[in-house]
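Can anyone check this?
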Amino acid sequence: MKTIKLCVLFIIITSFSPYKAAAYDWETYEMVNKLLTIRVPGVPVIHEDHVIFTAASDLRRVGVAFAHEGFFPVYWFTQLIVPKNITEMILLPGQKVPDPYKDSGLQFHVYKLPDHLRELEYRLVINGLWTIDPVNPVFKRDPVSGLSLSVLSLPQRPANYNPLNGLPEGLKFSFRGSPGETVTVAGNFNNWDPFMYELKEYPAGIYSITIPLPPGTYQYVFFHRGERFTDPFNSRRAFSRDGKAVSEIIIPK
Protein backbone atom coordinates (compact mmCIF):
# COMPACT_ATOMS: atom_id res chain seq x y z
CA MET A 1 0.00 0.00 0.00
CA LYS A 2 1.41 3.37 -1.02
CA THR A 3 2.12 5.88 1.74
CA ILE A 4 2.83 9.62 1.72
CA LYS A 5 5.22 11.50 4.00
CA LEU A 6 4.41 15.07 4.93
CA CYS A 7 7.03 17.60 3.84
CA VAL A 8 9.15 19.40 6.47
CA LEU A 9 8.77 22.63 4.48
CA PHE A 10 5.07 22.68 5.35
CA ILE A 11 5.95 23.05 9.03
CA ILE A 12 8.45 25.83 8.40
CA ILE A 13 6.01 27.90 6.37
CA THR A 14 3.08 27.64 8.75
CA SER A 15 4.69 27.40 12.18
CA PHE A 16 3.94 31.04 13.13
CA SER A 17 0.76 31.54 11.12
CA PRO A 18 -1.58 31.82 14.16
CA TYR A 19 0.15 35.10 15.08
CA LYS A 20 -0.24 36.73 11.68
CA ALA A 21 -4.00 37.17 11.90
CA ALA A 22 -3.53 40.33 13.96
CA ALA A 23 -0.76 42.89 14.32
CA TYR A 24 0.65 43.10 17.84
CA ASP A 25 3.05 45.84 18.90
CA TRP A 26 5.11 43.21 20.76
CA GLU A 27 5.25 40.73 17.91
CA THR A 28 8.90 40.25 17.02
CA TYR A 29 10.81 37.06 16.28
CA GLU A 30 12.57 37.33 19.65
CA MET A 31 9.32 37.81 21.59
CA VAL A 32 7.48 34.96 19.85
CA ASN A 33 10.49 32.71 20.35
CA LYS A 34 10.55 33.60 24.06
CA LEU A 35 6.83 32.90 24.34
CA LEU A 36 7.25 29.47 22.76
CA THR A 37 9.87 28.50 25.37
CA ILE A 38 7.28 28.78 28.18
CA ARG A 39 5.93 25.28 28.84
CA VAL A 40 3.74 25.69 31.95
CA PRO A 41 1.96 28.63 33.64
CA GLY A 42 4.28 30.49 35.98
CA VAL A 43 5.33 33.81 37.42
CA PRO A 44 5.09 36.59 34.79
CA VAL A 45 8.19 36.69 32.59
CA ILE A 46 9.87 40.01 31.81
CA HIS A 47 11.39 40.13 28.34
CA GLU A 48 12.94 43.40 27.16
CA ASP A 49 10.27 46.07 27.81
CA HIS A 50 7.30 43.68 27.96
CA VAL A 51 5.96 41.20 30.51
CA ILE A 52 4.35 37.87 29.57
CA PHE A 53 1.45 36.63 31.71
CA THR A 54 0.42 32.98 31.40
CA ALA A 55 -2.39 30.73 32.62
CA ALA A 56 -3.64 27.22 31.91
CA SER A 57 -5.60 26.99 28.67
CA ASP A 58 -8.38 24.93 30.28
CA LEU A 59 -9.54 27.97 32.27
CA ARG A 60 -12.64 29.38 30.61
CA ARG A 61 -11.51 33.03 30.56
CA VAL A 62 -8.60 34.88 32.12
CA GLY A 63 -7.80 38.59 32.16
CA VAL A 64 -5.36 40.93 33.90
CA ALA A 65 -5.82 44.52 35.10
CA PHE A 66 -3.34 46.94 36.66
CA ALA A 67 -3.42 49.27 39.66
CA HIS A 68 -1.73 52.14 37.80
CA GLU A 69 -4.62 52.04 35.28
CA GLY A 70 -7.31 51.89 37.97
CA PHE A 71 -7.92 48.23 37.07
CA PHE A 72 -9.46 49.27 33.77
CA PRO A 73 -9.33 48.01 31.09
CA VAL A 74 -9.10 44.25 31.58
CA TYR A 75 -6.69 42.63 29.13
CA TRP A 76 -8.00 39.20 28.16
CA PHE A 77 -5.62 36.33 27.54
CA THR A 78 -5.16 34.63 24.15
CA GLN A 79 -4.84 30.88 23.70
CA LEU A 80 -1.35 29.82 22.60
CA ILE A 81 -1.53 27.46 19.61
CA VAL A 82 1.69 25.72 18.57
CA PRO A 83 2.64 23.50 15.61
CA LYS A 84 2.48 19.75 15.99
CA ASN A 85 5.55 17.66 15.27
CA ILE A 86 4.18 15.86 12.21
CA THR A 87 7.30 15.71 10.05
CA GLU A 88 7.40 11.91 10.33
CA MET A 89 3.65 11.30 10.14
CA ILE A 90 2.59 8.66 7.59
CA LEU A 91 -0.68 9.16 5.69
CA LEU A 92 -2.58 6.42 3.91
CA PRO A 93 -3.95 7.20 0.43
CA GLY A 94 -7.12 9.28 0.73
CA GLN A 95 -6.51 10.08 4.39
CA LYS A 96 -7.19 13.70 5.35
CA VAL A 97 -4.18 15.80 6.34
CA PRO A 98 -4.56 16.52 10.08
CA ASP A 99 -4.62 19.98 11.62
CA PRO A 100 -0.92 20.90 12.01
CA TYR A 101 -1.55 22.88 15.23
CA LYS A 102 -2.39 21.93 18.79
CA ASP A 103 -3.25 23.55 22.10
CA SER A 104 -0.03 24.31 24.00
CA GLY A 105 -1.79 24.11 27.37
CA LEU A 106 -1.28 27.85 27.85
CA GLN A 107 -3.10 31.10 27.34
CA PHE A 108 -1.21 34.38 27.58
CA HIS A 109 -1.11 38.16 27.46
CA VAL A 110 1.90 40.34 26.59
CA TYR A 111 1.89 43.77 28.24
CA LYS A 112 4.09 46.77 27.42
CA LEU A 113 5.76 48.00 30.63
CA PRO A 114 5.35 51.70 31.46
CA ASP A 115 8.64 53.56 31.82
CA HIS A 116 7.94 55.14 35.21
CA LEU A 117 7.04 52.04 37.26
CA ARG A 118 9.42 50.20 39.60
CA GLU A 119 6.90 47.48 40.42
CA LEU A 120 3.75 46.24 38.71
CA GLU A 121 0.64 45.77 40.87
CA TYR A 122 -2.12 43.74 39.28
CA ARG A 123 -5.11 41.45 39.76
CA LEU A 124 -6.49 38.66 37.59
CA VAL A 125 -10.01 37.83 36.52
CA ILE A 126 -10.32 34.03 36.34
CA ASN A 127 -13.64 32.58 35.19
CA GLY A 128 -15.44 35.76 36.25
CA LEU A 129 -13.84 36.11 39.70
CA TRP A 130 -11.24 38.73 40.72
CA THR A 131 -8.21 37.22 42.44
CA ILE A 132 -4.47 37.54 42.95
CA ASP A 133 -2.19 35.63 40.62
CA PRO A 134 -2.15 32.00 41.87
CA VAL A 135 1.33 31.36 40.40
CA ASN A 136 2.97 34.53 41.77
CA PRO A 137 3.77 34.20 45.51
CA VAL A 138 4.45 37.94 45.92
CA PHE A 139 1.44 40.05 46.88
CA LYS A 140 0.48 42.87 49.21
CA ARG A 141 -2.67 44.40 50.66
CA ASP A 142 -3.72 47.82 49.40
CA PRO A 143 -4.22 50.04 52.51
CA VAL A 144 -7.03 52.05 50.87
CA SER A 145 -9.20 49.38 49.26
CA GLY A 146 -8.12 46.44 51.41
CA LEU A 147 -7.67 44.34 48.28
CA SER A 148 -4.79 41.93 47.87
CA LEU A 149 -2.64 42.79 44.86
CA SER A 150 -0.09 40.64 43.10
CA VAL A 151 3.25 42.40 42.73
CA LEU A 152 6.00 42.03 40.14
CA SER A 153 9.28 43.87 40.76
CA LEU A 154 10.65 45.50 37.61
CA PRO A 155 14.37 45.78 36.82
CA GLN A 156 15.85 49.19 36.24
CA ARG A 157 15.62 49.92 32.55
CA PRO A 158 17.19 52.59 30.38
CA ALA A 159 14.79 55.30 29.29
CA ASN A 160 13.08 54.43 26.02
CA TYR A 161 14.04 56.39 22.97
CA ASN A 162 11.71 59.36 22.44
CA PRO A 163 11.32 60.26 18.75
CA LEU A 164 10.62 63.87 19.78
CA ASN A 165 14.04 64.33 21.39
CA GLY A 166 15.95 67.06 19.62
CA LEU A 167 13.13 69.56 19.25
CA PRO A 168 13.10 72.44 18.46
CA GLU A 169 16.19 71.64 16.40
CA GLY A 170 14.18 69.02 14.53
CA LEU A 171 12.69 65.56 14.57
CA LYS A 172 15.26 62.83 15.23
CA PHE A 173 14.87 59.54 13.34
CA SER A 174 16.86 56.49 14.47
CA PHE A 175 17.29 53.00 13.05
CA ARG A 176 19.25 49.99 14.31
CA GLY A 177 20.90 47.56 11.90
CA SER A 178 24.14 45.91 10.83
CA PRO A 179 27.24 48.15 10.64
CA GLY A 180 28.26 49.64 7.31
CA GLU A 181 24.80 49.79 5.74
CA THR A 182 22.86 52.53 3.93
CA VAL A 183 19.63 53.64 5.61
CA THR A 184 17.30 56.41 4.45
CA VAL A 185 14.03 57.85 5.72
CA ALA A 186 11.09 59.12 3.67
CA GLY A 187 7.66 60.44 4.52
CA ASN A 188 4.92 62.90 3.74
CA PHE A 189 7.41 65.66 4.62
CA ASN A 190 9.50 64.96 1.46
CA ASN A 191 6.90 63.44 -0.88
CA TRP A 192 8.14 59.93 0.08
CA ASP A 193 11.47 60.39 -1.69
CA PRO A 194 13.59 57.36 -0.58
CA PHE A 195 16.91 59.01 -1.48
CA MET A 196 16.74 62.53 -0.03
CA TYR A 197 17.58 61.86 3.63
CA GLU A 198 20.35 59.36 4.42
CA LEU A 199 20.96 58.52 8.08
CA LYS A 200 24.47 58.77 9.52
CA GLU A 201 25.97 55.81 11.38
CA TYR A 202 27.26 56.44 14.91
CA PRO A 203 28.02 54.37 16.88
CA ALA A 204 28.36 51.18 14.81
CA GLY A 205 24.95 49.83 13.79
CA ILE A 206 23.01 52.90 15.01
CA TYR A 207 21.79 55.24 12.27
CA SER A 208 20.17 58.62 12.86
CA ILE A 209 19.29 61.95 11.29
CA THR A 210 17.60 65.10 12.62
CA ILE A 211 15.28 66.87 10.18
CA PRO A 212 13.87 70.36 10.94
CA LEU A 213 10.08 70.03 10.80
CA PRO A 214 7.31 72.38 11.98
CA PRO A 215 4.42 71.20 14.20
CA GLY A 216 2.13 68.77 12.43
CA THR A 217 1.33 65.10 11.79
CA TYR A 218 4.00 63.14 9.94
CA GLN A 219 4.03 59.67 8.43
CA TYR A 220 7.29 57.98 7.50
CA VAL A 221 9.19 54.74 6.85
CA PHE A 222 12.84 53.71 6.65
CA PHE A 223 14.45 52.19 3.56
CA HIS A 224 17.14 49.55 4.11
CA ARG A 225 18.44 47.05 1.54
CA GLY A 226 15.60 47.99 -0.79
CA GLU A 227 12.85 47.25 1.76
CA ARG A 228 10.50 49.48 3.75
CA PHE A 229 10.52 49.38 7.57
CA THR A 230 8.33 51.10 10.14
CA ASP A 231 10.03 52.73 13.12
CA PRO A 232 10.80 50.11 15.84
CA PHE A 233 11.05 52.93 18.42
CA ASN A 234 7.57 54.31 17.62
CA SER A 235 4.55 52.08 18.21
CA ARG A 236 2.09 54.49 16.55
CA ARG A 237 1.01 53.13 13.13
CA ALA A 238 -1.07 54.41 10.22
CA PHE A 239 -1.65 53.43 6.60
CA SER A 240 -0.53 55.35 3.53
CA ARG A 241 -2.76 55.93 0.51
CA ASP A 242 -1.42 52.77 -1.12
CA GLY A 243 -2.49 50.72 1.94
CA LYS A 244 0.99 50.09 3.35
CA ALA A 245 1.81 50.40 7.06
CA VAL A 246 3.76 53.52 8.05
CA SER A 247 4.91 55.07 11.30
CA GLU A 248 3.17 58.24 12.44
CA ILE A 249 4.16 60.97 14.85
CA ILE A 250 2.59 64.27 15.89
CA ILE A 251 4.72 67.31 16.70
CA PRO A 252 2.56 69.50 18.96
CA LYS A 253 2.33 73.25 18.53
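Reply from J.R.: I decoded it. Helices lie at 8-14, 29-36.
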